[in-house]
Specification:
alpha/beta, TIM Barrel, 10 strands, 39% helix
């Protein structure tokens, strides 16, 4: 059993427990459940933003502890002040050290779109996502059939959340159904957790024409973001690179400032 299989098996048990503790009828009473959502696509398209989805992540199976005692309020606000287009919040506890409370806190202090980063395999998790303030949800093609993607994305849309479908190989692209809003190319192989940025370039021309697309994982250089944007990507999910710092918000700000200098370098002033 690889790590992805282990995560999904654990998630099935966890979901059954959560259904008993927090039934859907209880989730629907959350103040966030009927609140308007914010479009991730629109924020990633804003000309005054850079297309970066800044991620809050404490740990991972591949890296171990990244920033175990990180404060989600401080860091999420720091990301927004830095100029990030959106937030991504890991809510898995067992493998990534996150929680639903992390996303709730980020929602409380930020008006930007928030992506719930989670291993979603059951419709219950969509109601849960809506109840904690998520604007968009992640579906992973590698763990879902085309039928499951269609079913889950349809419910997410009915709950007024956008859907990011994550793929790693062109063989998974047949799962891009009409209710998917964004295709995310994960440069990390979820079976081995090895990262290769070339994956984004190799996948680019296989993604359906006109589909909004983002590149995920392994991005640590503003030049890489610029090159991927020039190639045709609309957004860029960055987490570990920022979170490895004692001050992720500041690191994000420096990254975005450097990116702006590449996109619009200071003009030469002639005297």
């Amino acid at each position: 059993m690889n790590i992805l299989d282990e995560i999904v098996a654990y998630k099935r048990k966890e979901i059954n427990e959560r259904k008993e503790l927090y039934p859907v009828k209880l989730l629907e009473k959350s103040v966030y459940f009927s609140s308007p959502t914010v479009s991730l696509k629109k924020y990633l398209s804003r000309e005054d933003k850079c297309g970066i989805i800044a991620e809050f992540k404490r740990q991972s199976p591949s890296k171990g502890n990244i920033n175990l005692y990180a404060d989600v309020e401080e860091i999420s606000i720091g990301y927004m002040r830095a100029g990030a287009s959106a937030l991504s919040v890991l809510t898995d506890t067992h493998f990534f050290g996150g929680s639903n409370d992390d996303l709730k806190t980020a929602r409380k202090f930020n008006f930007c779109p928030i992506l719930r980063k989670e291993f979603i395999i059951d419709e219950y998790q969509l109601y849960e996502a809506r109840s904690i303030g998520a604007d968009a949800i992640l579906l992973i093609a590698e763990v879902l059939s085309e039928r499951e993607v269609n079913y889950l994305s349809g419910i997410a849309k009915a709950l007024e959340m956008e859907v990011l479908l994550e793929v790693h190989a062109k063989e998974q692209l047949h799962k891009v159904v009409d209710t998917v809003d964004i295709v995310g190319v994960n440069n990390r192989n979820l079976e081995t957790f090895q990262v290769d940025l070339q994956t984004s370039y190799d996948m680019l021309h296989h993604i359906p024409v006109g589909m909004f697309k983002i590149s995920e994982s392994g991005i640590s250089n503003p030049e890489t973001v610029y090159e991927l944007k020039q190639a045709g990507y609309n957004g860029f999910l960055i987490g570990e690179y920022f979170m490895q710092s004692a001050h992720p918000g500041r690191k994000c700000a420096r990254f975005i400032d450097e990116l702006k200098q590449i996109v619009q370098p200071n003009p030469v002033i002639h005297q």
